[in-house]
Amino acid sequence: MSMNLTPSGERMHISFFGCRNAGKSSLVNAFCSQKVSIVSDVLGTTTDPVGKSMELLPLGPVVITDTPGIDDEGALGNERIKRTREILRKTDIAILVVDGTKGKSASDEALISLFNERDLPYIIALNKADLSGKDISDNILTDDDYKSGLILNVSAANGFNIDLLKEITARLTLREQKENSIIGDIVTEGDTIILVVPIDKAAPKGRLILPQQQVIRDALDHGVMPLVSRDSELKKALSALSAPPSLVITDSQVFKTVSRIIPDDIPLTSFSILMARYKGNLTPSVNGVFAIDSLEDDDCILISEGCSHHRQCGDIGSVKLPALLKKYTGKNLNIRLSSGQEYPEDLSEFKLIIHCGACMLNPAEANFRYKKAEAAGVPITNYGIAISYMNGILKRCINMLPEFKNV
Asked: How far is CA 306 from the centre of its chain?
């Protein structure tokens, strides 16, 4: 997948924070070597987060985000601060831009506390080194100096230490990156697998959804041969193979149909289960699914999706999953929906959260949502886990995964 086509959820997110007029936008432009943000001496010029997808060597594809000043004022300012905090949720590396002529403010210190609280790697960039009046020399760093919390004098105006800031950011980001594969540890080179992709009214016209694309690419990367079929042709696809497939991966919404077709001795799972594992949230999803059995009438359930799309007849999140929940529990449940960047600040009213596979969210954002649910004491699971559990096939759908081999 090319740099320009790499989805946001697969990129490292590097965000610039700080007070108004600390020079965040100028530093972002210098960092990206192009005009990303509007620059002005007027306080609060950046009114909304500005994101730029680019390639940062040696990292590859990243998202650079410029945020409004954390010290903005008034009702609109509070809304901008809220948006800035939302960006914090998906940030992998934070760069705190401080006006070097003034030093750190109370707002800057509050941001540092937030970084530490979230265990978020960060760099403090003391901007305006050209105006500070101090004797500034190039920083000479050893390998041990490349660590979170490093303070670096920079100047967006004359480019002082901008390349060094990039190098430090790249080193920190590389430490945070984890080599990960969706199916690499559950298949063997030369295997044949079947991917079941239903094409219905909710399917995007002319393309596959992201998890399906990613699994196909991951299979090819590992020398595995994927056979893609609709659920309506699954029997024919199965009989066309000279030997049984090593694995079948299905869209969650046709779990029941597929499980009846695929013999019990052939491993079966879903794209959303694999995506939850890929993002690091499979275990809490499995632990949370059992809360379905304790639901009562009028309980509030949050069904949350990481992407925004036009909901159609037969939509899995707003139609099929609520119907299955009500049929399985026999309860009159109060279903709430959220999508995209929407995620309730207060989760206390919910008895259960069912999240999508989070393919459009980067791991930082996905983990934030799970940790927020855990902090609120609300069980959280995901689409594939919930649907397989309510169809009585959860154990079958996870027991090929190393962490659940003996479950």
From this structure: 8
Instruction: Find residue 50's DSSP bridge partners.
Output: 66
Q: Is 234 within 8 Å of 258 (Cβ atoms)?
A: yes
Instruction: Quote the distance between the C-alpha of residue 381 and its chain's center.
Output: 16
User: pTM for the whole thing?
Assistant: 0.75
Residues 58-100 pLDDT 10s: 667 888 898 888 876 655 556 767 777 788 888 989 999 999 8
* Class of domain 178-407 as given by CATH: alpha beta
Quick one: pLDDT band at residue 340, thresholds 50, 70, 90?
confident
Cα gap 215→237, rounded to integer Å: 18
Return the amino acid letter for 342.
E
What are the domain boundaries of the chain? 8-176, 178-407
Are 8-176 and 178-407 equal in CATH topology? Answer: yes
Q: Encode 296-326: b = buried (16+ Cβ within 10 Å), e = exposed.
A: eeebbbbbbbbeeeeeeeebbbbebbbebbe
Interatomic CA distance for residues 188 and 219, integer angstroms: 10
What does the alpha-carbon distance between residue 357 and residue 277 come to, in Å, rounded to a whole number?
9
How far is it, in rounded angstroms, from Cα 116 to Cα 94? 11
Whether the per-residue pLDDT at 352 is higher than 80: the answer is: yes
Sheet containing strand 192-196, strands side by side: 225-229, 192-196, 247-250, 268-270
Q: Is beta strand 150-153 parallel, antiparallel or unpaired with respect to 192-196? A: unpaired
Given this model, what pLDDT does residue 218 score? Answer: 94
**Helices 363-375 & 271-279 angle (0-180, nearest 10):** 90
Task: Tell me the pLDDT tens digit for each residue of 165-193.
Answer: 988 888 887 665 556 789 999 999 999 99
Please state, in angstroms and rounded to a whole number, the distance separating the CA atoms of residues 83 and 67. Answer: 8
- CATH number of the 8-176 domain: 3.40.50.300
Residue 2: what pLDDT? 45
